[in-house]
Amino acid sequence: MTDLYERHRAVIPDWVALYYKRPIEITHGEGRHVWDADGNRYLDFFGGILTTMTAHALPEVTKAVSEQAGRIIHSSTLYLNRPMVELAERIAALSGISDARVFFTTSGTEANDTALLLATGHRRSNQILAMRNSYHGRSFSAVSITGNHAWSPTSLSPLQTLYVHGGVRSRGPFAHLSDARFIEACVADLEDLLGHTHDVAALIAEPVQGVGGFTSPPDGLYAAFREVLDRHGILWISDEVQTGWGRTGDHFWGWQAHDQSGPPDILTFAKGIGNGMSVGGVVARAEIMNCLDANSISTFGGSPVTMAAGVANLSYLLEHDLQGNARRVGGMLLERLRSIAASVPAVREVRGRGLMIGIELVKPGTDEADPQAAAAVLEAAREGGLLIGKGGGHSTSVLRIAPPLSLTVAEAEQGALVLEQALHSL
Hints:
- This protein is 37% helix and 16% strand.
- It has helices at 2-11, 47-50, 59-71, 82-95, 108-123, 140-143, 179-194, 221-232, 286-289, 304-319, 322-341, 371-383, 409-424; strands at 26-30, 33-36, 41-44, 100-105, 127-131, 160-164, 202-205, 235-239, 266-269, 280-285, 347-352, 357-361, 386-387, 389-391, 398-401.
- The chain is globular.
């Protein structure tokens, strides 16, 4: 591994981060487990950043990929593509958006880029509302709407971005309020903000902020925002790159926790649908999706191989009710971790929904984030045979737990035991 690490450092940019003091090379996986080049076996509670959604080496997906690759690997969107149409039909029906059209990309970043292009083109405005503590990708336009300075390397932007309160429930000026008053205060902030700007194209929001540390507002916030947005003709983009496909357990899409005012105008997705294959996309009403007045195709979006993987993976997800499993096993894991955290002074909060759980660490007796503690727990968990992630707002001090949705009760308990030992090692 030392040799590979040195080769990595010689040719890969410094800003491409690696986990662990001794980075590991993952060579293969099965179910909820992966193995490294030294033969160590790990329970995977991060799934390649919430991307291995169903299971590693899922036979149904690998079979679909192999069979499609044996026929044709690539053609581009210039030709009819049966797997792409089939997956688009299923996603359109599941999206909740009427008269929906689907455009496939290769990543969540590109999906959000496309959503921004559609919104600004449709509204003829380059002004975007985004949430504080948000993350929407690493491209030039996506970075410019990201409300998390750790992931925003430039202030240059093709867009004018204004940031709204509400994505973080337990920090900030409204944290002390009840849920109902919190929503009222955030809506008032939005109303005030709109009184100081010209026409806005869209609000983009993650129902649960991923890189931000799995934070979320009270249910109904974005429905209340939607009432304000509708009065101004402003579009709502729901970034479901991390929250889609039933990961939150309670809902298939994160926006459904805020559905009192209807579905979003635009929905973006990626990660889990391909179970590791490069699939992203956008769903929007036809009038919005068709607003572009210039040619646009995708060379690699909608690839026959990735679409075949998506169809097989979605079928498995629905047929095995993995959303229900995320609700049941995730609920149990969340309560188990809260019980563990009660005796760990460094844990400020355990939060989440389904199999999307965050453990926020602070310096004991304070509200000050402790990224060193998060790094230490990450290392200790790895030594115990468990892979987790980390994230958070101003400082990376939140442990991110997001296993494949097929996680068993026994595996959840095994992971909780490792986390208990790692947290107590602080």
